[in-house]
Amino acid sequence: MATAAAEAVAIPVEEELKRAAEKMENNFSKIKTKIHRYPSIFRSLISTDDRYFVPRAVAIGPYHHGAPHLKEAEEVKRAAAYYFCGESGHSVEEAYQRILLVVAEARSCYVDDDTVASIGEGDFAAIMFHDGCFFLQYIICSTDDIAPSLESWFNSNDASMERDIFLLENQLPWVVLDALMTFRSVPVGEFISQESTSFDAYTDLEK
Predict the structure, then answer these.
(1) pLDDT range class, residue 195, cuts 50, 70, 90
(2) Which of 88, 137, 157, 161 could form a disulfide with 184 if both were Cys (CB 3.0 to 4.6 A apart)?
(3) What integer pLDDT is reported at residue 51 of this predicted model?
(4) Do residues 117 and 146 touch, judged by C-beta distance below 8 A?
């Protein structure tokens, strides 16, 4: 009887351990594409505040989504999505449906912490869609004409934006941008290469 009871307990325990091992292997296989978070101990070693980790103007991706000081940009993102789709000649529905096709893969690129886990599937897809359109519109603004109101917001927040888009915890998976660029070609690689040559995280920290 004791042996049978032990075997009954062992089976679910083994399954639980197997799931944990499979999850770890899956995470390891995606280590090169993961958008990581700084360990808390690094934050205290690098800085007495979060200036190197928390965006100033806009949250890109889920890690800092919903932060009170970034709320203004959320409405701007929606406008950017509207303009991006309109200027591409495709409907918002078409672009959003394309994001839905890759949203599961996009979610797997983030660390599954409490912040990400608390975001429902629909809300996560909306974040990918709005943030992707916003980011691409920001790049388009550097080479082409866009809606004057959107251009004005980008220009007035340009110093913060230049820093925000390079923060480790403020990134989008390439699969999201790639999906949106099926509707409109945007020189993302060229833009990042050019901007990175002048990026300096240690300047203008108090502005």
Answers:
(1) confident
(2) 88
(3) 77
(4) no
For 32-52, b where at least 16 C-beta lie within 10 A, e where not — what string? eeebebeeeeebeeeeeeeeb
DSSP secondary structure letter of residue 177: H
203 in helix, strand or coil?
Answer: coil
**In this model, does residue 8 exceed pLDDT 60?**
no
CA atoms of 127 and 130, how far apart (whole Å): 5
Residue 89, by phi and psi: left (phi above 0), alpha (psi -120 to 50) or beta? left
Residue 82: other Cβ atoms inside 10 A: 15
Residue with tokens 């000649």: 89
Q: CB-based burial of residue 73 (10 Å sphere; 0-12 exposed, 13-18 middle, 19+ buried)?
A: buried
Tens-digit pLDDT profile for residues 29-67: 555 668 988 777 666 666 666 778 899 999 999 999 999
